[in-house]
## 1
Amino acid sequence: MGAPGTFISTDSALIARWLDGDHAAASQLVERHASSVARFVASLGVRDEVEEIVQDAFVRAFEALDTYRADAPFRTWLFTIAKRLVFDRSRRERRSRHDVPLEASVEAQTGDPLDGLVVSEEAARVRHALEGLSPLQRQVFVLRVTDGLAYEEIATLLGSTAGSCRVHYHNAVKLLRARVDADDV
Amino acid sequence: MPMTCERTEMRDRLSAWVGRHDALLPADALAVEAHVATCVDCAAEAVQLRGLDEAIRSASPHVDVSRIVAAIPKRGTRTRLTGHAGGVTVGGRGVPRARWTSHVSLAAAATVLLVLGVSVSRERSAGITEVAAESAAGADAVAALALEGVAELSDEALHLLLDEISAMPASPVAEPSVMVRPIIEPLEMP
């Protein structure tokens, strides 16, 4: 873990190094954020091609870094690009199926979003704890706890408001506590 | 057990403290740490959050970082065709890109259609036929790549192709400079 408060400035420094021609800086940025982006993509319900989407998100981000103004954290920017790619993918697949509604198409191709987020048997405990949450509560919880995003960032990413995300988070925590307490009985 | 701690500012920061300490300012992280040391409620919640956080991290999808890094273009280089069908070199590193290959082929097919004068929504053609002079050689290569495949398309396949072109990935916040962009822009659907 780095020193508190240095995360964003270090991202900016790495971006500046890459823009100056230091390709190794790209490696550090990918190592730092790839898992988070993959987790986010999986939380959107993608089961297959998670890595391809993550790769595309990074490639697109780096190709557009000249125009990145750092008014949002680099990771949030990556999430935004990845989300767009997932939606584009869903739209493409929906078109190929013509008469299948978007929601049904996404569900059919991806199954339960939890399957993408929780892939190992050892994680059954997490699944049990998380499955009682709504998809939105789950996304907010993971982005908040595991990825450390601010409510404002989560709101931008999910097309909601910071206040709403705060409510979703606290409701998620309340439900998780209740479920964990019930398991302990 | 219901949460009874009324220090909402601490509770709000608890998740960031558990999941990623560096998301907090140093002073805030120290304040949360001091609070958790004295608050039974927040300490219990921190333990639960940490358990979930660790489990979620360990269960996250695996990604091959080296493969992703290899696909990232080096500074000052652009995606370019390698000259053999289906191959796209990213930053001159020769990384196979199946999905991009698909898009390049689609863009190439569209270019051929335009070059050959096939009527593809004439009213929408303005603005999409411009081929940058600096990309002329690349466009020729792209057209040559696609010519054989397009000639064999049925009407139905052609319509599907046009649908695919119109559904090509939309731009992220800032548009990357991919080689296919100067050649053709995606068609707009009515």
## 2
Amino acid sequence: MNVPIEYFVLLSMALFSIGLFGILTRRNALMFLMSVEIMVNAANINLIAFALYHGNLTGQVFALFVMALAAAEVAIGLGIILVLYRNFRDVDVTVPTTMRW
Amino acid sequence: MAVFELPDWAALAPALILVATALALFVIDSINPHTKNRSLLAGTTAVGSLAALGVAVWFMVAGVGTPTAAGGRGVVELFGGQLVVDQMALFFMTVVSVVTALVAVASYDYMGDHAYQAEYYSLMMLAATGMATMAAANSLVTIFIALELASLPSYALVSILKDNRGSVEGGLKYFLIGALSSAIFVYGISLVYGATGHLQLEAIADNLQGAGEYGGLLGLGILMLIGGFAFKTASVPFHFWAPDAYEGAPAPVAAFLSSASKAAGFVIAFRVFTTAFPLEPTTAVIGVDWTLAFIILAIVTMTLGNFAAATQDNVKRMLAYSSIGHAGYALIGLAGLSADGGEIVMGAAMMHLLVYGFMNTGAFLFVALAEYWGVGRTFEDYNGLSNQAPVACFALGIFMFSLAGIPPLGGFWSKYFLFTGAIQAATANSAMLIVAAALVVNSAISLYYYARLVKAVWIEDPVSGRDTLAQPTGLYAAIIFAAVLTVVALPVFGPIADAALEAATVAIS
Amino acid sequence: MTNGPQLRLGESLLPGILAVALFGVMAMIALNTGFADEMVGFPEGISVTSEIGYALFDFTALQSTEGSIGNTEPFLVSFLLVAVVLDAALDAALVLAKRETEGKPIAALSSVSTGDSASTQPAATDGGAEDGSSRSSGGEQR
């Protein structure tokens, strides 16, 4: 029943890297958003595991706030992707190139 | 001295006034949806931010946030140390609110025909609230939430011209990089929490001694935190959103982001690294001196920004890269910290951010004026504008020469302090000599492209067939006010310098 | 067309190597960190949920002092700030999502047809591919 903390940290690092992998390889804005969400949730795993490790609840409460903020961020992200689609008829992040990257 | 004593929470008044203004704008919008009463909306915004400015300056003069030993009223800690109001917080609240006021007045004309007036101003006030809270945040929790509060409305503000492809593209890139960097930032927070068990900055510092075994974890966490700061301040390695977002955004929004948002990014960096990660104990844990990271970042950022700016043809893009360059100058404030000092570099960086707030906002507002006229975007399109609009072009000259650091303008003095501070810090860390040299070389390069714009406006022959140019009251007022502030910064530079140095001393100790 | 997820190999995967390398570095750091064998954990007989509630609203007097729970930080100001952030997100998302007809925003949540919606795009999850086969549809191709 007592899982060592290393396993939690490795799990969260793996999730973080998976999210980063998605950001680096995907060109769909929605996929990008999901990948960012995975990275944020990797941080949540860390926070909750470390809360148990240190025995104080700071990490757990902060994880709640991070979830709320992630939801707010997605709301705005979807708004921007909606406007992007109306203008470019596409959600590919490499399509808008009126300016150089 | 004071007839009555304000309660402790009143120290947050500048931020509270900003959020109250945002809520007032919501109320106006809900009573009269789609109102086009721009005077009311822009007026409310300007009055709110000027009130916040007045209160912040009054608090600073009255000694709120100065330690009692130095004759002040003491640093105010609120909500169990989650927020702190000291001189540095008030200083940056001043910067944020003055920029907000300028941008609000300028938006009166620029956003003239826009469908979402009330939303535009309320988003701006909410972003300003976030930036003012960032100045006071004293825990990684409040820092992260305030950072999101400043970022989320900014994404929407950049893409608020919903039918304009450039605006939407700028907003998308800003959002994508912003979301990525905030994910990295929060992961960094989780690692710091893992290493120390706390998120409140003083508590982190207190627990550094016990974090000996977690050196690698803490180092990785600090590296990721630096990524988050780099995004907010538009420095390397998360700088590449800046040119596109600034170019695509409405020019007043670009002014707001490049001045106020950058200053707010620096205040959290200053606070986290001086309070939570004091140099000696942190070096003992992670084995590397974190100023090294900032020395590298400062040199790379200022060089990249200035060289890229010199190759641009588009004026707004040139200003965007120059703002990256200025982020590099302000990074010297962190690079030059040493175990036994560094108030001078950090105070100089704070002065630079204040003066930069005036001159850079003014420069972007001139671009806003040019966009309002519809004269075009490149240097050639600006040729000979002084024939038709000498006053605005004179103000532009002041902004450009101040940005380049020509004496005796304000930009020169803050760079001079940065330079002397860097030289002084070189006694502790000889790498600072390279930084000082880079500062001088880059300032020389920057003179080339700033002078190029002044030359285009004043010396080149006017483009033939240009109509007479309108004189929008709000934009003119904001530009002239910014120019006056840039010039007035000279005689009062002594007190500003004292305030900044004092604030830096309090923050470091 | 709905397909199952497919692993696409090729050049688009190259930057992903960076992510894999990063994982390697991070895992090295984590494995070399000397974590304590035992987690501190939470003491028996207290309700973690109510402790979270006390921390959320700065009820320090009610907070348990057993174990390290007393080290939990107060979060009231964060709670208030998040309320403002959600306001901002709502405001921003509504501005972005509203549609305009002739420069006037129309209600985003209106259930009444505005009459001219027939002339605009019909809603379609595949993105209303009006230019048909000239464009690859769907997100899985990207």
